[in-house]
Amino acid sequence: MSVIDLLFGRPLSTWEERGERLGPVAGIPVFGLDALSSAAYGPEAALALLIVLGAVGIAYIVPITISIIILLVIVYFS
Q1: How far apart are the C-alpha atoms of 71 and 60, rounded to whole Å?
Q2: How confident is the model over 55-66, as pLDDT tens digits?
């Protein structure tokens, strides 16, 4: 057994691989929700920084909000 097989597991044979595949009906919800939940951490971090900046941070709310919306649109359509 090689180190790569020990770390990642052995390669799947062809008949085992067929059982591990996801079709579009199952794959879109599984991978789409992961991307959307991951994108939710960015706005929280940005707003936490803006709170510390106080009144100066208010000027940055609109550009950050627009970039977050663009990011969510990209994730949605990908």
Answers
A1: 17
A2: 777 787 788 888
